[in-house]
Design brief:
CATH superfamily of the largest domain: MM3350-like
Structural class: alpha+beta
Largest sheet: 7 strands, mixed
CATH class of the largest domain: Alpha Beta
Number of strands: 9
Strand content: 25-35%
Number of helices: 5
Radius of gyration: 20 Å
Length: 210
Amino acid sequence: MVAKLNKACERVQFFEDLLEETSIYQPAGGKVASRDLVGAGKNAYIRPNEELYKDLEAFAGGPVLRVRAAVLKVTLDLDNREVWRRLVVPVNMTFAGLHEVLQVVFGWQDCHLHQFHIYGDEKFAAPANELYINHPTHHREGFKPVLNLVCDEGAFEFEFESDVPMKWEVGIRLSAYIPARMKYTYDLGDNWEHYIEVIAEGRQYVAVLL
């Protein structure tokens, strides 16, 4: 038992960056913990989340989880070509969760900072948009940004340099802004820009939780 407790403490320390200090509810840390291998005795191991789903489905006689989802087209904007992915994600997913998904589907290594921008329906006039083109919040179709979601608290030190409101992305869900236009920028030095278009929303899907 002591060995198991020591191992659990090691895991908590390893994933401490996932913990939200101001909340009892720990969705990011909980997902990692429930997917971890746990000894079931006699050199057998299980994953708690898989066992829970099996028990719930056996009890209910079928799928037990359905989610309202949105279909997104995410396009990586390159000079000579476009690379895009079609995603189906729960609308209650957080922007931090969407960041994790985008890292996987585009093959990034999550080694750099990122940010999201939310855009309204208003556009800049043509001359103003041309002057604005190299600004980090620029949208290729000229839409004006209404919000900047950041992944690091240090970004707020530079908030005074921008007239776009800034929020920390932790805990903020897609449902708060869908179907707005969005842009995900990865690596704030090289600025890999991913334009996010909501193709459909509100569809019901049977959840496949991995």
